[in-house]
Write a structure and sequence with these properties.
Radius of gyration: 20 Å
Number of helices: 17
Shape: globular
Distance between the termini: 39 Å
Helix content: 25-40%
Strand content: 15-25%
Bound molecules: zinc ion
Largest sheet: 5 strands, mixed
């Protein structure tokens, strides 16, 4: 995405962070050196807040005084398509967009694999290195002697997605705010350079269930702000904290949901429905792609962008480059709402169909995320 007021891509965050630590082959494409006194940085913490869209942060500044203060006077960055966690974490980890790293959605087809691969749950029969063979920035930093840590929930240690997107780090598991702060502080102590990636997912969870901007969501945002405050306080004197996110979120009224499972017309010729309610990969039966495209355009026309695979690729949805291996993972047809709508499947995915907040599409609410930068010694008192 290139538009005025956007300062770069999520894919630039880890290469820029590693460049602050002088890791060879990594470039400060986001200009972090201009935003921090970057001489002799030895510790960088990258906090990824799942679901913290730029616009949500701006609208709820009162619930996040530290983060909104850091956001003031800065421009957001953009995530790739789809605006979903698995895809964005792979963009973060590899420094590329989905056309290259190949994690093209929450669920997607994988040639040679039966059914859809769920990128969050994964499948023991699928080797993460086959799905995503590009080296990660964490591996590059580790190879250069940087102490690289990934602080996140224990359940994600060694998961398919962690290995595909963010391999190359040691993994101190941490669930609570206190554990995350302690694990991050420990990761930064000791000689030499340190790069610590911290993931927190509860804001996204609350947003899905209660709605973004809801009472529960705002309470969770206060918690995130407190976490950032602690992480900054634990930085060494030559340390830098970056805060960013994998996507934003929008709430979708029940009236604005199209239910695939209740519309036989939409099902005709469809082999598999992939992606998620705001970013659908539609895989057609052999020879049916044209018919599916026409029917879906007719039914969803006004509120959705409905494109054939090649048209979405040519429009750059998956980045400037889509590799041979990645192309067949993309749906024959893509259906993406332009406004606050969703395409649910109430029988096959009843829980997902009843959520309040969703993401995945290409709206500014979902695509724009903060990139906040702060250094040690500010805000210790
Ligand atoms: Zn989510």
């Amino acid at each position: 995405v290139t538009q005025p007021g956007v300062a770069g891509s999520l894919a630039g965050v880890l290469p820029s962070a590693a460049a602050l630590l002088s890791v060879p082959g990594c470039t400060d494409v986001l200009g972090l050196t201009d935003r921090v006194d970057a001489v002799g940085v030895r510790g960088v913490v990258v906090l990824l807040v799942d679901g913290l869209g730029w616009q949500l942060l701006c609208e709820h500044a009162a619930s996040a005084p530290l983060l909104s203060g850091l956001a003031e006077g800065t421009a957001p960055i953009a995530v790739g398509f789809p605006s979903t966690t698995a895809t964005s974490l792979a963009s973060l980890g590899t420094g590329t967009l989905s056309g290259q790293h190949g994690i093209v959605g929450y669920t997607f087809a994988l040639p040679g694999h039966d059914g859809l691969l769920n990128a969050l749950r994964w499948d023991a029969a699928v080797d993460p290195l086959d799905v995503q063979p590009l080296p990660t920035v964490l591996e590059a930093a580790s190879a250069d002697g940087v102490r690289v840590s990934h602080v996140g929930p224990r359940a994600f240690e060694g998961s398919g997605l962690t290995r595909a997107a963010l391999r190359g780090a040691c993994y101190p598991g941490a669930e609570t705010l206190g554990e995350v702060v302690a694990a991050t502080a420990a990761s930064l102590s000791g000689p030499g350079r340190a790069l610590t990636y911290v993931y927190t997912g509860d804001l996204d969870n609350v947003g899905h269930v209660k709605g973004c901007g809801s009472l529960g969501w705002r309470a969770q945002l206060e918690h995130v702000d407190l976490l950032a405050r602690h992480l900054r306080a634990e930085l060494p004197p030559d340390g830098v904290l970056l805060v960013t996110a994998d996507h934003g979120m929008v709430d979708v009224d029940t009236a604005n949901r199209v239910d695939f499972d209740l519309e036989p017309e939409l099902q005709r010729g469809v082999l598999m429905l992939g992606g998620e309610p705001r970013a659908r990969h539609v895989y057609a039966q052999a020879g049916a792609a044209g018919e599916v495209l026409a029917v879906w355009q007719g039914r969803l026309g006004g509120g959705f962008d409905v494109l054939a695979r090649q048209d979405a690729v040519d429009a750059g949805w998956f980045g400037p480059l889509v590799s041979e291996e990645v192309l067949p993972r993309i749906g024959d047809v893509l259906a993406v709402p332009r406004g606050a709508a969703a395409l649910v499947a109430s029988r096959s995915h009843p829980r997902e169909a009843r959520l309040v907040g969703y993401h995945g599409s290409r709206t500014e609410e979902e695509v724009l995320v903060p990139l906040l930068v702060t250094a040690a010694g500010r805000g210790r008192r």
